[in-house]
TrEMBL record:
Signal peptide residues on this chain, from the entry's feature table: 1-28
Name of the protein in question: Outer-membrane lipoprotein carrier protein
CDD domains: LolA
SUPFAM superfamilies: Prokaryotic lipoproteins and lipoprotein localization factors
Pfam family name, one: LolA
Any coiled-coil regions, as ranges: none
Protein species of origin: Skermanella aerolata
Keyword field: Lipoprotein, Signal
InterPro entries to which the protein is assigned, alphabetical: LolA/LolB/LppX, OM_lipoprot_carrier_LolA-like
């Protein structure tokens, strides 16, 4: 249940840790959403809001495609740093250290990693956050005070679709959903997020638990 989220989103924030999926066929360019002027303005507000989130700490609830629920904590420090831990008894975790995203599989006692730029986590971890260029907005939906924006990587849309869900009034990121290449959906809802908090830099260092070294 955990791997679809990790493989597709990294996210993180989650949600944002993807091992790139190698494809043998050329993929068609993603179809960009036909945005109205108002929607483009909303996209601009979303970019400005996300770009202003330099650090974040939040509890979360992750819902798997099979209806299962797990809880955990996510820490984010832009640019390019993130940590995601699950509550016990789950010992899997994700760390983005500034260059790579690492995923620790406790059952297998091994880690896999990928450059941040090859993962969907890059969408919200990058320094200059823009939902254009190498990111394509494929869908935009507003209902009452809720805005949903779906994006893919322009050059590699097959890595998955990330949908960011915002509460508008004021604008706040509340959750995200990931549709992975296997067609599985994982949703992560933030609970009591804290923005602009001071975070220990040791959070963003990957340490192999099998080596018996603990994070301070």
């Amino acid at each position: 249940m955990l791997r679809p989220f990790v493989l597709a989103a990294g996210l993180a924030l989650a949600s944002l840790a993807s091992v790139p999926i190698v494809t043998t066929m050329a993929q068609a360019a993603p179809a960009a959403a036909n945005l109205t002027q108002q929607q483009r303005q909303d996209i601009g507000r979303i970019e400005q809001y996300l770009d202003g989130v330099k650090t974040l700490k939040s509890d979360f609830v992750q819902a798997g495609n099979d209806g299962s629920l797990v809880k955990g904590t996510i820490w984010l420090s832009r640019p390019n740093k993130m940590r995601l831990e699950y509550d016990p008894p789950i010992k899997n975790f994700v760390v983005a250290d500034g260059w790579f995203v690492f995923y620790w599989d406790d059952e297998l006692k091994q880690q896999t990693s990928a450059p941040i730029g090859s993962t969907m986590a890059d969408v919200i971890l990058r320094d200059n956050l823009r939902l254009s260029g190498d990111i394509t907005v494929t869908d935009f939906h507003r209902e009452a005070n809720v805005i949903e924006v779906s994006v893919v990587q322009t050059k590699d849309p097959g890595t998955g679709v990330l949908t960011l869900v915002f509460e508008d009034g004021p604008l706040r990121l509340r959750k995200w959903r990931v549709l992975d290449p296997q067609g599985l959906t994982t949703e992560v809802a933030l609970l009591n997020p804290q923005v602009g908090v001071s975070l220990d830099r040791n959070l963003f260092i990957f340490r192999d638990p099998s080596m018996g070294v603990r994070r301070d």
